[in-house]
Amino acid sequence: MLFNSYAFIFLFLPVTVAVYFLICRLQHALAAQVWLVAASLFFYAYWNPVYLPLILGSIGFNYAVSRTILICSGDRTARSALAFGVAANLLLLGYYKYTGFFLQNLGAMAGANPGLLNITLPLGISFFTFTQIAFLVDTYRHQASRPGLVNYALFVSYFPHLLAGPILHHREMMPQFEDARNQRLLPENFARGLLQFTLGLAKKVLIADQLADIANAGFSQPGQQALIDAWCVSLAYSLQLYFDFSGYTDMALGASRMLNIRLPANFDVPYRALSIRDFWRRWHITLSRFLREYLYVPLGGNRGGALATARNIMLTFVLGGLWHGAGWTFLAWGALHGMALVVERAWRGAGAALPNWLAWLLTFTFVNIAWVYFRAASLADAHALLEGMAGLRGTGALSLGGREIAVMLLGAALALFGNKAADLAEQCRLNVRTALATGALLATCVLALTTTSPFLYFNF
Fold it and tell me: pTM for this structure?
């Protein structure tokens, strides 16, 4: 089920919230959690019921492994259980996400055609797999509580973050469900959550989906774009991806806020970053945290000298790129960011600095160019568009219409100068004017839902 659908907005979300607080009012906290688990599993199965046993099996398996780690805490069995659990999670993710890519490339090297495998990537598998790997590691490190099965199932399946994050720690979310103050409807939380949800929906429907037409048309014919149009195509995708994914996150945080549960922020105006390091502190914050805590630091982090640090950065970002998708384009995108961070680290070490305006321009230009690899269907397509961006096909003339230009300018202005949706939702005055404005914006978004488009990160 999609957040930007009539079924979610008018049926699933209001029914789920209303029944949850009704059960809480009857003082059945465990039953209320069971209700949220059932609702979340329905939310997941609405897309394709075939994969419901997959997530149920994943939850049961990881819960059992976590109990083993707890029981055997301090001895070699706990470490073996952790290794087994992490390996099993990665194998499951690898089967669904990378089998086709591996066989295709193996066949190409062998000069054979392995054929296409009919493996459909289950929605959210990358997110709920990483969430559970983090939980197993936290359990081994004694940084996670000892949840019951219902509590753990809710942690993994909780519908706001299930399909595209944020990637959570058990300790930062689940204690909120145990707080008696959160088990009753709080009008302020509901109002601010609805406002943030609506702002996220507006990002998706009114901006990202409009920019998608420009990006899709350009990337479908990357070899035909001259300088001006090629840059418009790349910029349109950079803005589309930002408003699509940050819009999803705002909707997730808003829906959860209605239930009095605060999820961690995942975006902090990343296109205002003054360095690539700064960008990754602002973009997909919970993924950056996961890669740092569970990959970069275990690899050695910055503890082994300049060369070892550079190696660890490159490995982290190449694997981070591969997490996003099975393709050479994602590996190239991750490697580019890794190399940029290595160069930037050496630059800082030399004591060099740039004026803020130039640092921003270089950072955003690099991020925008790297997104070409992230979006392109192949390396050849990426290089074809980059050739146009380099002016190798001439300057050309702007082919966008007035409406398309207006949407791009609006998106750029909001990304570079606008307030964050979370800040607007938190700081605005709750009065009649705010209620009317929220209702008007929500109605505008609903009227614009002529077609329901999936979120881009559902593919990852």
Answer: 0.92
